[in-house]
Amino acid sequence: MKYKSIVATRLGGLDALQIMENDLRPPSPGEARIRVLATPVCQDDIAMRVGNRPFLAKPPFVPGYAFIGVVEAIGEEVEDVAVGDRVASLTQYGSHAEVIYWNAKELVHVPESLDPAEAVTLILNYLVAYQILHRVVCAREGDKALLIGASGGVGTAFLQLGKLAGLKMYGLASPSKHPILTEAGAVSIDYHRQDFVRVIRQSEPDGLNYVFNGMGEEYVERGLKVLGRGGVFVHYGGPQSFWSFLLLAAKFIGYNLLPNGKKIKGYGTHREDVNQFKEDWMALFNFLEEGEIRPIIAQKFPILEAVQAYELLESGQVTGNLVLMAPELL
Ligand SMILES: NC(=O)c1ccc[n+]([C@@H]2O[C@H](COP(=O)([O-])OP(=O)(O)OC[C@H]3O[C@@H](n4cnc5c(N)ncnc54)[C@H](OP(=O)(O)O)[C@@H]3O)[C@@H](O)[C@H]2O)c1
Q1: What's the gap in Å between 214 CA and the centre of ligand 1?
Q2: Confidence check: pLDDT of 148 > 90
Q3: Which of 78, 93, 156, 223 is the most interior residue, by most CB within 10 Å?
């Protein structure tokens, strides 16, 4: 028996991708074999393939940062999950495949009542927004925040979780995507034409509590300008190159030494703890079950048609999330 995966065979454009076939094998000790039901497409899948993520996977690799699937087989010593369980995990790469083998200890059980396409957006995009809001800055009702990159996968998760936490939000987005910000009660700023520093300083003379930056280090200085005393700039955008990482690190050190009461912090899922992920995924599953959040799914594609989804995400036209699905669920 065989299964297929999407493989980035080398650094490059969409032509670097191929569908490859592998033999199914029994899971190793501690591992589960999972049939993938849903897997999100995110900016890092593309950035890794084109060579813009110096610390993430190098080709050949299977893209795919997260998955939800059904356990098909388990290896020896696996106690946490059983065949037939619906599970999920964060993988960084490897999920854009019909089947994935994964360490059973890193799997979380997913309630059967949840739609897999919606639920899989919680595993990466909502997790990032939730952890930054509730573990990094510990946001409180009435706090004010700027979202840089407000209309994308992580950005729309911030909009919904920020609204739920009672934040006053400003968001940078292209004008065609402003309705989604308005729906969440955020003030939209067209960063192509408007100077966001001026707009925010006019409406918030005392400054904001937080800036959440999913873009590059070029936003650091302007982001710091809109913070009030005690404000925190959280950078979660993946560095595009080793040099941009060094520049960002230098800015972190330099600006954190200034006696202006403002702080810069970094967030990356690779540095966090799987047990905290599980705790936070349970909270997010609960929000979804209760209808407190409603992930925006721009489009779904069959897993093996991932190239179309990557192309769409690269076009910059997507609001919310793209999800690859097992074809029988479409
Ligand atoms: N640290 C972590 O663990 C972690 C995890 C997940 C994601 N991330 C990072 O989060 C970022 C967003 O990922 P994503 O998957 O949510 O991406 P996405 O869905 O493609 O969204 C990115 C959004 O950014 C906006 N944008 C593009 N250029 C911009 C610019 N110059 N200024 C302001 N906004 C701009 C685009 O919308 P408009 O058309 O409205 O401009 C787009 O919707 C990426 O940098 C990724 O590396 C980090």
Answers
A1: 5
A2: yes
A3: 156
For the segment 166-175, the average pLDDT, to the nearest whole number, is 98
Strands (E) located in the chain: 2-8, 17-23, 31-41, 66-74, 86-90, 99-103, 108-109, 144-148, 168-172, 187-189, 208-213, 227-235, 263-266, 297-302, 321-325
Q: Given this model, what pLDDT does residue 169 score?
A: 98
Mutate to test the pocket of ligand 1, among 127, 215, 222 (most ligand atoms within 8 A of CB): 215
Which residues have C-beta atoms less than 6 Å from ligand 1? Answer: 42-44, 124-125, 128, 148-149, 151-155, 172-174, 177, 191, 214-215, 236-238, 267-269, 313, 316
Q: Express each pLDDT in 304-320 by its tens digit.
A: 999 999 999 999 999 99
213 CA distance to ligand 1 middle (Å): 9
Domains and CATH numbers, the chain: 2-110+296-329 (3.90.180.10), 124-270 (3.40.50.720)
Over the stretch 237-256, which tens digit does the pLDDT of each residue have? 999 999 999 999 999 999 99
Residue-wise pLDDT for 255-288, tens only, equals: 999 999 999 999 999 877 999 999 999 999 999 9
Q: What is the pLDDT of residue 270?
A: 85
- Give Cβ neighbours of residue 143 (< 8 Å, ≥ 6 apart): 165, 166, 167, 168, 209, 210
Q: Which two tokens stand for residue 114?
A: 């949840």
